Amino acid sequence: MVIEDSIGQDVYNPVYITFRGITLVNEQLQQEGLAVFELADTSGLDKACEVVIELKALQKQQKRVEAVADIEMPWPGPMIDRHMDIQVLRDLFFDANLQAAAAENFGTDLFLWRSNFFYKHQGDRDGRGTGENKWHHDRHFENGAAPLDLYNMSNHFTVLLALTDVGMNAGRLEYVKGSHQPIDGWDRDIPRHIKEVPEVVQDRVTPLPLKRGQFVLFHSSLLHRSLAFESGDARISMAARLAKVGTEFPEDGAANPAGGEQARAEPTVNYRKTGILAFN
Fold first, then answer.
1. Contacts from 185-189 at CB under 8 Å and sequence distance 24+?
2. Is the distance from CB of 240 to CB of 93 less than 8 angstroms?
3. What is the pLDDT of residue 254?
4. Contact 54, 201 (CB under 8 A)
5. CA-to-CA distance for 101 and 246, rounded, in angstroms?
6. Pick from 176, 164, 186, 72: which is nearest to 117 by CA?
C-alpha cells in the first residue's frame, strides 16, 4: 500500500497485521521485496546513536592519518562489524520483534555476517551534507564460488534499523519495488552499483521514510539507494547482512548469472569469518 506525500510522490506505507504482538507482513515482503516493522524495545537507541557518532569520529581520524602518512590502515574500519564487540548494538539484533519477524519471513537458521552504519548530516563535505549512496543491491555472493542467483528468495537478506527518524530530506531511502524478482523489459546484467535506474522501472521507485525504532527486512537483490542529505536533523541507520547457515564465503565476488564483464558483482575481497554471529 502506498500513500501520496505533500509533493505527490508515492511513499511506502506498511500495512500492519498484528499476531501475538508481532507485526507480520509476509505477503507484502514477498511481493514487493521489503516490509517495515517496529522494534519491541527502543530504550537502547539513544546510546546506540552516541556510539555511532563516536565511531564516525574515529573513522575520520583514521582517514586523516592515512592521508598524512600515505598509508592504508588495517581493514575493517571502525564502522564495520561492531555487532561483534559493542553490546548495545548487538542487542538491537536480538530485539523480540526483529527476531520474530526474521524467523517468520526468512527462517530460523540464519547467521549475521556484516554490519555497518549510515550517518548522514549537514556537517559532512564542508557543510554540503553527506552525499548519496548509489542504487545497489546487497547480494555480494551466493554460496562459495557459485554465480549469483538474484531471484532466489531462499537466501541472503538485509536488516536495516532506523536509530533515528530518516525523513524525506535527510538522505531518504528509496527502493525499486519488486526488483528482487524478474521484471519484464529489465535486463539485470548490470554492475551491482548503478547511478540511475532504467526508464522501464522508474515508476516503481518508492521513497521509504522511517521513524525511529522501525526496521526493514528485505531480500538482498532488491535495488535501493539513499539520497544525499539536504536538511533537517542528522539521521543514523544500521544495516546488517543475513545468510542461511551453511552458506560459504567466497574468495572473491560472484559473477551475475547473466554473464558478461559488466555483470561482475563488484567483488569485495574482505569477507571475514570473524564477523559471523549466530542470529537465530
1. 187/258, 188/150, 188/256, 188/258, 189/256, 189/258, 189/259, 189/260, 189/262, 189/263
2. yes
3. 58
4. no
5. 21
6. 164
3-state class percentages of the chain: helix first, strand second, coil last, to nearest 5:
25, 25, 50
Sign (positive/negative) of CA torsion 153, 118, 35, 245? positive
pLDDT at 192: 85
Query: What is the Cα gyration radius of the chain?
Result: 18
Q: What is the mean pLDDT of each run of 10 residues along the chain (280 residues)?
A: 43 51 66 95 97 91 88 80 94 97 94 94 84 92 88 96 96 96 91 91 97 97 95 94 93 57 53 82
Spatial contact of 172 and 226, defined as CB atoms under 8 Å apart: yes
CB 112 within 8 A of CB 102: no
The answer to whether the beta carbons of residues 158 and 98 sit under 8 Å apart is no
b/e per residue, 248-277, with b = 16+ CB within 10 A?
eebeebbbbbeeeeebebebeeebeeebbb
Which pLDDT score is estimated for 202? 97
Say what the pLDDT of residue 7 is. Answer: 40
Q: Is 8 exposed, middle or buried (0-12, 13-18, 19+ CB in 10 A)?
A: exposed
Residue 64 phi/psi, 5° resolution? -65, -45
Structure-block grid coordinates of residue 180: 528482487
Given this model, what pLDDT does residue 25 score? 56
